[in-house]
Amino acid sequence: MPMTRWARPLLFLIALFPFATAFAQAPIAKVEPVVDDYYGTKVTDPYRWMESGKDPDWLPWLKAQAAHTQGVFKAIPGRTQLLADVAARSGDLASVGRAQEEAGLVFHEIRAAGEQDSKLMLREADGRMRVLLDPSKLKGDGEQVMDNWSVAPTGQHVLVALSKRGTEDSTLRVLEVASGRLLPVAVPHAWAMSWARDGLGFSYLKFVGELGTPGYYVNSEPRFHRLGASGPDVVLAKRGANGIVGKPEQFLAVLFDPDSATALAMVRDGRNEVALYRADAEAAMDGKAQWTPVAGFEDVVVEFALSGDDLYLLSKKTASGGRVLQTSATTPDLAAASVIALPGEPVIESILPTREGLLVRTIDGASSGLWRVPAGGVAVQLALPFDGQIPWMQGAASSSTVLVAMTGWFTPSTVFRLDVDSGRMQDLALVPPLPFDTDGYEARRALVTARDGTRVPYTVVAKKGVAVDANTPVLLEAYGSYGMAYLPRFNARLLPFLDRGGVYALANVRGGGEFGRDWHYAGKAGTKANTWRDAIDVAEKLVADRIGSPKTLTLIGTSAGGVMLGGAINERPDLFSGAIANVGFMNPTRYMSEQNYADIEEWGGPISDAASFRTMFDLDPYQHIRQGVEYPAVLVISGLNDPRVATFHSGKYVARLAASRAGDAPVLLRIDFSAGHGMGSSRSQLDETWTDVYSFVLWQAGREDFEPNK
């Protein structure tokens, strides 16, 4: 970055003297180069020692980095008040997570106003509310949080996945609804899958490897636990048996449905598509299933659903946006499957059978759409309460009503009960109304023509009436991975940043799923450069429109978005005042050293030949840090318990960037030693994290105060 970006007025430098001098105090990582030979290409890695997590210098270096970064942020004028405003917004708001309706009871996950974590709640048939489970009151190894939960079809039990905060290392427990007590069942190191139709047992995925190592997910087993049964749980399916094809590192899970006598076995890895098999559910529960194939990876099935003997498959084999296929669950035949058509061939996100027909969730421009397709009838688009995103739907194939969640830029998550036949949606009012006004903010959708002619959409969110110009602090976010679509979503913590004249922009770059499979594959593996170049092109458009400038524009990428972030600032370090890698995936070529390596298909791996190595190496941000380049200021955020992106990604990236860059732009590593990938973080942890994000943006934009605009 040009040095002029760091030339602050004299009075500002004096005010920030402890902050400015703190730059020189950042701890330096030791260098122990390791040279790998990948099919004739030698690659040097100076910080390989960080990967094991067992080097005696690792934790002391992380703690020193954390202390340094904490000191830097505490010295920023205005951060204290910004944190108070962020905490007030998040604290005043009661938020609802998932909900499920069974036997006339509404189970739902609520974080009440002022509280740190979510509780599992029950609304009785007469409307009375009852706390079913408060994880904060459980004893265990550290603070306990809910990772997931699922209600039995009878409504009598709830399967709850609990873990130590941030680890996502779930132990499965069973809650008895009538008494509110936890049964003696405790299955560690597992993911919950589904209940049997009688509600007396459940399937789960058991991990048998060593936690925290690359072998943790290898040879995972789908098992079945029957309530009250003695003896070991039944293994439901095995790779290589009964025709099931799967690699040890791929997940093999078995799912049951309360409205079908068929069980489905699913093989999946980091791809969206799955391989699918079927068997008689009762035989499967006894460990005697005869599995027969339904679809292979080549059929590009990304979702499926059962309703009696009807099996619905969402396939993207011949349609980028997806086609819904209907076949027999007992004798499936994809070649003879009927196609359920939607007008205009929209991008299909999910399907849900109901008694009144199939519900189909789509992407409709910048928001979600919802369609009902009656058996043998014509698809009808349902009216939604507002433009926004439908993050989930829940219901049974035998029911005429389903629960639908909606959120928007300025509307928090709201759960509706949809009468499928009439299309009417009733707000269940699971949480109080929004306690503050959001009418003073606006979102504007726009398009930019990328360098190769592709039209890339983006959204600009700001406070109404605030003058936006080249001096405006701008936070630009992009993701672009796994075919995930980024649609409008409410974030109360963003509002204090907007109140201070900041602008938030979201770029729907290639690699996401906003326009279907083709859009995903245009920013995946060998085409990954399109992801960060789309972000660059959106950034250049913002600057051209005087929505910020290279002196005020910060780019953020979260998780897989770290590849986008690193690629963008490696290619155009001059375009940004700041860059934030939030729990970022920064060193893909070393995927084999971490626990979560099974999803490497997204990046072109596994590395098995010169071509696959080159694909992954070319998109590796860590390996493309350039010596002597004036990079923008960089903030790297990580949690020590992160099971999805190992902390070494953040550590290695910070160490190499700090040692390589020219100039004095700070490179900060923010570590939360009791957090993970963001899942399971408390309200206060998230308040602190996002206050630091917004403080960093304002600081790098040259703001001398963080006073809200009047």
Question: What would you note in describing this structure?
Answer:
Residues 1-24 have low confidence and may be disordered. The strands form nine sheets. Strands 31-32-34-33-35-36-37-38 form an eight-stranded mixed beta sheet, with helices on both faces. The chain has a four-stranded antiparallel beta sheet with strand order 3-4-5-6, with no helix packed on it. A four-stranded antiparallel beta sheet has the order 7-8-9-10, with no helix packed on it. The protein is α+β, with helices and mostly antiparallel strands and 710 residues long. α4 (79-92) packs across α12 (683-700) and α8 crosses α9. It is built from twelve helices and 38 strands.
Instruction: Figure out the total of helices.
Output: 12
CATH architecture type of the domain at 8-89 and 441-700? 3-Layer(aba) Sandwich
Gross morphology is: globular
Structural class: alpha+beta
User: How would you write the strand order of the largest sheet?
Assistant: 31-32-34-33-35-36-37-38
CATH class assignment of the domain at 8-89 and 441-700: Alpha Beta
Number of E-state strands = 38
Regions with little confidence, pLDDT below 50 for 5+ residues: 1-24
CATH topology of the domain at 8-89 and 441-700: Rossmann fold
